[in-house]
Amino acid sequence: MSQQHLVVVVGAGPAGIYGTRKLVEAGHHVVLLNRDIKPGGLAEYGIFVDKEKMKTGLRKQFKKILADPKVFYLGHVTVGANQALTLDALKAMGFGAVVVTAGAQGTKKLGIEGEDAVGVYHAKDVVYHYNSLPPFSQRTFEIGRRVAIIGMGNVMVDIANWLLNHKKVDQVVVVARRGPLEKAYDDSEFKYIDMYLDNADMKQEIERISSHLTAVGQDVEAIKTKFIGQGEPLEGRKLTFRYLYSPIKVIANDQGRVAGLEAEQNIMILQDGKTVAKGTGTTQRIDVDSVIYAIGDQVDASLGLPFSRGAFVTNPEKLPGDPNPAAYQPYNPELKSPLEGIFVAGWSRNASVGLVGVAKQDAERGMKVVNAYLAQKPDSSAGEMEMKVEALIERLKSNGVSPVTKEDIELLEGAEQEEARARKTWDFKYTSDDKMIEVIAARKAAR
Ligand SMILES: Cc1cc2nc3c(=O)[nH]c(=O)nc-3n(C[C@H](O)[C@H](O)[C@H](O)COP(=O)(O)OP(=O)(O)OC[C@H]3O[C@@H](n4cnc5c(N)ncnc54)[C@H](O)[C@@H]3O)c2cc1C
User: Rounded to the nearest whole angstrom, what is the distance from the C-alpha of residue 297 to the centroid of ligand 1?
Assistant: First the structure.
């Protein structure tokens, strides 16, 4: 006999939505709570603005999953401590299970002097800004002409893409602790910024660090062949790299704005076969007027799950099974026990790791664990589930929160598509929550 339960999923990014599909396929009903008005998470508000095919493809898939009558989408609802809805309150309402797929919303800092100067930003905030996610879409980002990006992954490439192609800054300086071979970005992504690479500067930079590369057994000539291209940077806008540097201080001017970055020069050593950066004590000033940290994110501790070193604590016990159920169970290290009926998946389980496909796979594995947990519990009736959804909506309303439903999202998207057509562009987004709510209300009134 098919089992049915009402499951609450917190976060409607790729992990939450693909996870919902697996729960629904197993016969369960899902209440999908989402901080943002619109679903999609970083697929909507992270993936680069002009990746039309990828974004529209994902939107279509998400829409289909959300259209299932067993899915209740409640957008513009943030779960967490000091919010209208806490995880404890959700637990007390007696849902079959609570699944946290809220991504990695906390930001990491380097903890260096001067990092609160005007002009220092986290990549995620910048990415949310140019992808039109309120309130970041409404904030001013004081980006100058010469911008340092700290970190060497795909997010660095996206930020450099935005700075060079859209903001048309004069120079982007990528600052990396280790050398060219330790890059974390994909070559297929680098093509978006390759035309700005200052090849003469790259040659000098590789020559500057060549003895350190040789010291760890790296082939300097092969590195030159791979990383030095031909030609001048397009339209004079330059992309340069400063390898083997760790930032130690943001230098601010007397108005508190970024005037430069002080970085310690590193060497590389081999540890267990891996290259590790080691400071030399020698410092160098890099002249930039803005700094963006693209060093990955951490989970949001205010969600209220046990938290340690940027991650939610999961059950350290290695339980049998594929997937290992323990990895999806939040764990209280003081009581030495997993939290009953709560699960984590996607970037909430493994912050800033992998593309959409990885978050999807993680959620699908996690939902196998959730479905196995639910199979041991007595069934819920359709009437009981309906009453619980109503009670949740009532609770939100009495706490001053008016959730946005999937019907509201349809109206909003309809209005945005009309606006996009009128502007002869493939995509248009309203950039404030108030405007989105106003548009939904106007469409409802006009029906
Ligand atoms: C800059 C950038 C570019 C990327 N580009 C690509 C790309 O080109 N291709 C690709 O395949 N992958 C890309 N990725 C990776 C991809 O976006 C992630 O793998 C994926 O989005 C992670 O999914 P998730 O559901 O775990 O988290 P998220 O996508 O972050 O979704 C989390 C959801 O939870 C909600 N939420 C957060 N906190 C709460 C709360 N307290 N209460 C309720 N809801 C909450 C949010 O509103 C959001 O909808 C990119 C990532 C970044 C950062």
Answer: 11
